[in-house]
């Protein structure tokens, strides 16, 4: 009996020792070496894997005693405990027991500090879903902050997760700035000095000039941008973010653009607004210069459209020169194969066609366009190999161009490139100021004053739209239409026959119906051509509507030699030797200087932040 | 706080009107018949039909004729003392040390930035105490008797003239005393933790002498604004569920503000609740509507319509409310459109004499809803109103509630917006109880739960071995806490089905919201039928067991509501019932075991 018991114990001991060997090999911790480099050890397999992928506890983020003890206290039942807590949280949310809900989230995050979805999901719940449950907007604002604080806490535990900083940018910028309560939220944020101190203590310096609004108080859009910048720094440092890079990198500069929009809505329409728009333009261009990896595997620059077009054009020219008249021949043969009805349609005068026929012609013409490789295949056999090689290059360039255009469309790149340039123009600022004054006068029942301001504003807006037609189709166009509605209500009759914005109103009404419209396209084409012409002599175009003193100032500035001191000196200003950086480009995708179009003269001679105390 | 309708019942209402006594009798009868049948079947197997019946009858006779009348308190106390000493020898006081460690580090886990930290602190200590004491009761009560039976120490007791009832009651008394001592210590520690943990102070941050208003510093994640009156005294605004008094003095020509301790954070309001009914959109008796929330706790009335919520209160008299009525509301608001963002949804209160012949009602008292906080309104003894369509000053007690009954009507005034309410969302505050007294009552409630666990633990240990007894008592505890799940599954309130269906879903990785869809309908029907059988058996079983969720009263403490005497009395009666039940069951087991023969 005793022998059997002894044997059993011996077997147990041997088994334990045998099992300990792989545990030791796998789990041996790494040992940092001495200063002379001796005595270091890479540790076991697990330690090496942790080291290789930076997933050691200390690499992931701060080690919190509360979190660690919570994990230990569950005795390996962390998953079960988390599930119960999630269910409890859902119950509390269902029953609107908010304090308990927030407390439960706190416990969940301690149990699962490195589970990113917990931070993202529950912060969204706090800031977006729960805040709206409160009737008082002060309480709503507090709950938005709770969501932000939750994410901030998440960043402590997960220092290499840029998505959390990106979320913080979204919450701080967009949640506060695009809510129906934005006016009140913005005011609350500006004056929330305790919260500013709290953010500073959490490592975000909201008192840096880049985060201060025109009243020298932190603005949430600019603070949001700081979070985005933190996120970008992480990604630039090698961290991975599961976002499309072109959209991901556009959110930071967009904060500055949104900030400019916000201050204009609040009636800041002077040098301070101009300064901020110039900054926005600068940062948007920086974004355009950034290398962005596409889902197709190649890297693009958002402002590389002209270069891409040039590559394509050169390739196509080389191809066409090589294949000679092969394309025309192929097209002629394709045309011969068309039915009589189709031939008649494409030969018909353009004015006699209805919309359906135009669409059909588009389809026929598409079929008549031979692909580059088809053209290459149609040349003589001895030239075919080279033709295919050149054709492939053309196709690659076309594909690259198409991808770039697609990416630019997704972030509305053109619009956000043109908008700050247009908005920093004195005429635009004056148009907005007049419109703002008129709206304000209307609320004070000063109808005559309002009408006078409106009339002055419409003339300026006409100029702005003529120079930058793209402004008609987005926010600026919407702002003008809203004011026009008020104007018309006050007029109590239809617009006058010679109304300066009559064409814009007609266009906008048509445009807002959506869908493809021939008239809209025709209008845009005409206005774009006109804008191109204006761009060649922009100064004179705007001078017509400017007061004398402004014209004098512009003329004086134009006469002065352009020295580096006269260039805008934003914080992120590139070296002064590059002329293109001195003035934001106007509608051109090229990084090359766009001298004729650059509205340098309408900006102050030297850019200083007018908001700063003198 | 979510009140359940049954929590409003007075003790006698529960006992007689709501069938508490009847249910108790029914349960006793069913258990007696079942007990007799099971006892007889066992006896039948051992000794045959007539001998078996005789044996069972003999035991019953002995219980009523000999053992029950002969039960001696002296022997009970002696056994109890023995159990007490034995428990102390098993170092149960370690639990106090564990508790001290837990509350020392509680600050790590509690959300200090909560908008009402008192609720979190109180919930935490009460829940932690509750679980710890129940676990203590579980371990203490289940191991003792089996260990004595195994070591045969029990023979030294049963060979003496000690009755089985005395063995059971003595152990319950002994373990109960140990548990009580531990509970008192934990209670005192908890009280100190809450009171000290919430203690804080503020200083003045800014003060405008022209407007006599100021702001405090941010301490413990909150700050207050305050207004100073002509005498240099004032009160701060309410934040985190409390206020401070402020005294302004001058020292060396400078303003110095002295802030008093937090008030209103720890309290025990004595609410008087009314019965809620609604008028529908047509102005007749009806019900509230749903605005689409998953929770059905609130019913909603539409603004600028004939819908209204009417609370009928009784026992409204001058002696209970000498200074008029302190009305406390916590209504919900739901907007179908944003409307005026700055101003909350508006409503009106009307007080009405319930007697339709009287034609007496107050003028409309306007208010703006304050969601998720207690909106207090003082209704003075004299209010403006109409009597027989004449505008007059009405006396609250003589005109509006001459028989002690008063109706409070609430309407929402904003078109397209809604008010949400449950019966407990409007209450009249009849005074306050000291916090320590409410805290004590809350701990009495925990003590009752502990005694139930001890009774069941000792009962299981009379016929099961230690480990099995502990599993049995633990199962009983789990059923007591989560038994409601069976009812929810049967009523389809919980998705995913019963145990068999859940297992299939886990294995096949199907979400709970999708159909089971195994491609074999008869099989699915069988699975659902088996599940239903299991869950209904479980529900039947739990219906006879104590529901620990209903016995818990931590919300009363956390939300500062005086724990109703009727509710506590009901819990005491139920505990006594379970004590008697387990005592009888234990008697029969001890009596029929060989060691007691």
Q: Could you describe the 3D structure shown?
A:
The complex is a heterodimer of chains A (614) and B (597). Chain A has 614 residues and is mainly alpha-helical. Helix content of chain A is 68%, strand content 1%. Chain A contains 29 helices and 2 strands. In chain A, strands 1-2 form a two-stranded antiparallel sheet. In chain A, strand 1 (291-293) and strand 2 form a beta hairpin. In chain A, helix 4 (65-73) crosses helix 6, helix 8 (137-157) runs antiparallel to helix 9 (162-178) and helix 15 (305-323) runs antiparallel to helix 20. Chain A is globular. Chain A starts with a helix and ends in a 32-residue tail after the last helix. Chain B has 597 residues and is an alpha+beta fold. In chain B, 49% of the residues lie in helices and 19% in strands. Chain B contains 18 helices and 22 strands. In chain B, the strands form 5 sheets. In chain B, strands 1-2-3-4-5-6 form a 6-stranded antiparallel sheet, with no helix packed on it. Chain B has a 6-stranded antiparallel sheet with strand order 9-8-11-20-14-16, with no helix packed on it. The longest helix of chain B is centred in the N-terminal third of the chain and has 35 residues, at 164-198. Chain B is globular. The model of chain B has no long low-confidence stretch (mean pLDDT 89). The A-B interface holds A 65-66, 69-70, 94-100, 102-103, 106-107, 110, 133-137, 139, 142, 146, 149, 180-181, 184, 194 and B 2, 105, 108-111, 113-116, 119-120, 123, 218, 223, 294-295, 297, 332-333, 335, 338, 341-342, 344-345, 369-372.
